[in-house]
Write a structure and sequence with these properties.
Order of helices and strands: HHHHHHHHH
Structural class: mainly alpha
Number of domains: 1
Number of helices: 9
Strand content: under 5%
Oligomer: single chain
Number of strands: 0
Length: 206
């Protein structure tokens, strides 16, 4: 398979994994509305980095890591669920800054939280295995081919987050401080709800 084809299929895989609605999507939208497009993009970058990590594991068929993730899935889910619930609680009680303030500057915590949230979702690597198989990319690959595939996964994932942040940024002007408070609370409930669901799954998957 030529490198360009691998790159395109990798982009498709990255988009397919990133696009489904989840807690990171909620965080990206919430941060973009509160602090502007760059905060959303930095949040997406953290998720894209974790997606790329798992995509590399699946793309290079690193079996011992895949087996470890499957074996420890319930524990990883448990800690991921706890992290989501904690973030949801923090978001609920944190008063969003006024939209009139200059909040364009993002912080490293935007990157770190989404990176950890994505990394503590063990189904990501399993999803990549399914998606790559559907795209005809399963099995071991030479290093150069694998690098093109991984580059495509990162590109596809970041493309999604950039588009999502751009859409949320355009909607930002339609919100006032009161609406942002309610959006913050709705986002907090959504994130904590995802966390509770993950905790339940961690118990049932044992």
């Amino acid at each position: 398979m030529n490198p360009f084809d691998l790159l395109i299929r990798g982009i498709a895989a990255g988009l397919a994994i990133s696009a489904p609605v989840g807690p990171v999507n909620v965080l990206c939208i919430s941060r973009t509305l509160a602090r502007g497009r760059m905060a959303g993009i930095i949040s997406g970058l953290g998720a894209a980095a974790a997606d790329t990590f798992y995509g590399a594991i699946a793309g290079f068929s690193i079996h011992f890591v895949i087996h470890f993730v499957i074996r420890e899935e319930s524990r990883i889910r448990f800690f991921g669920g706890i992290l989501l619930i904690v973030i949801g609680i923090v978001y609920y009680f944190r008063k969003p800054a006024s939209l009139n303030e200059d909040r364009r500057k993002s912080t490293h915590s935007d990157y770190v939280t989404t990176f950890l949230l994505t990394l503590t979702n063990p189904t990501t690597v399993l999803s990549f295995l399914v998606v790559l198989a559907a795209l005809g990319l399963s099995g071991e690959k030479p290093r150069v081919e694998g690098l093109f595939l991984v580059a495509g996964i990162f590109t596809g994932s970041m493309l999604w987050w950039i588009v999502l942040a751009a859409i949320a940024s355009r909607l930002r002007r339609k919100f006032d401080d009161r609406a942002m408070l309610w959006m913050n609370r709705i986002g907090a409930f959504a994130i904590a709800g995802f966390g509770l669901a993950v905790l339940i799954l961690s118990r049932t998957s044992k």
